[in-house]
Amino acid sequence: MQSSNPALSVVTRQAGQINFGGEEAAATLSGTTTKSILLVAITLVAGYFSMQYSAAQIYSGSVPTMLMGGSIIGAFIVALVTIFNPKISPITAPLYAVLEGVGLGVLSMVMELKYPGIVSTAVLSTFAVVMAMLILWKTRLIVPTARFRAVITGAIGGICLLYIVNMLFSLFGGSLLPSSGPVAIGISLIVCTVAALSLVLDFDGIEQSVNAGLPKYFEYFNAFSLLVTICWLYVEILKLLANRE
C-alpha cells in the first residue's frame, strides 16, 4: 500500500512489524474518526483566534508575517518528526493542528480583508469536497488502484517541484506562475483536483492500517495524515477563489 501523503507511507513499513498477540490495543476506524474530528476542531479554533489577533494587528498597521512564517515552519518540523516517529503522534498531532491553525489563520485574515467572504466560502467548499470524496470512495465510484496511486503521487511530486521553482524565482523578484487570469485559474483547478483525489488515498490508507491491526497510536497518526491533506486542500481552494476575483 502506497499513498501520496508521505505520512501514510509509514503504514506500509509498520504493518509487517506488528505483534498480533493482543498485547497492544489496535487502531480502530471509530477511534481514527474521533481523532480526526478532534484535530480538525483544534485547527479551526486555533485558526479563529489567530484570525482575530491578525485582524487587530493589521488594523493597527502591521501584518503578523513572523507569526505566520514561524507557525508554518514549526508545523513543518512537527510534521517531519511525526512522520519519522509515529509513536509520539498523540502529542505531536495536536501540536501540529495548533501550529497549522495559527499559520492558516493569519493567511486567512489577510485574504479575507482583501476578498471579503472568501474564508467562509473556502471552509465550506473544503468541507463539501472532503465529504464528496469520502462518499465517492465508500461507494467505490473511485477505486484507488495501483495506477491511480502512481498518477496522483506523480502529480503531487510535479506540483511540489513547480512550487519550489516558483519560490526560487520569487527570491529574485520574478514569478514562474501567474497570479491571476485564466492560466492561474486553470492551474489552481488542476491542483485542487489533485488535492481532492489525494483524499481518496488517505481514506483508503486509513482503512488499510486499521485492517492491518496497527497500534492504537496510529489513530492519531492517521488523523494527522488526513489533516495534512485537508489543510493543503483548503489553501488551494483559497488560492483558486482569490484567482477568480
UniProtKB/TrEMBL annotation:
<dbReference type="Pfam" id="PF12811">
    <property type="entry name" value="BaxI_1"/>
</dbReference>
<feature type="transmembrane region" description="Helical">
    <location>
        <begin position="91"/>
        <end position="111"/>
    </location>
</feature>
<feature type="transmembrane region" description="Helical">
    <location>
        <begin position="37"/>
        <end position="59"/>
    </location>
</feature>
<feature type="transmembrane region" description="Helical">
    <location>
        <begin position="148"/>
        <end position="172"/>
    </location>
</feature>
<keyword id="KW-1133">Transmembrane helix</keyword>
<feature type="transmembrane region" description="Helical">
    <location>
        <begin position="65"/>
        <end position="84"/>
    </location>
</feature>
<feature type="transmembrane region" description="Helical">
    <location>
        <begin position="117"/>
        <end position="136"/>
    </location>
</feature>
<keyword id="KW-0812">Transmembrane</keyword>
<keyword id="KW-0472">Membrane</keyword>
<protein>
    <submittedName>
        <fullName>Bax inhibitor-1/YccA family protein</fullName>
    </submittedName>
</protein>
<dbReference type="InterPro" id="IPR010539">
    <property type="entry name" value="BaxI_1-like"/>
</dbReference>
<feature type="transmembrane region" description="Helical">
    <location>
        <begin position="217"/>
        <end position="235"/>
    </location>
</feature>
<feature type="transmembrane region" description="Helical">
    <location>
        <begin position="184"/>
        <end position="205"/>
    </location>
</feature>
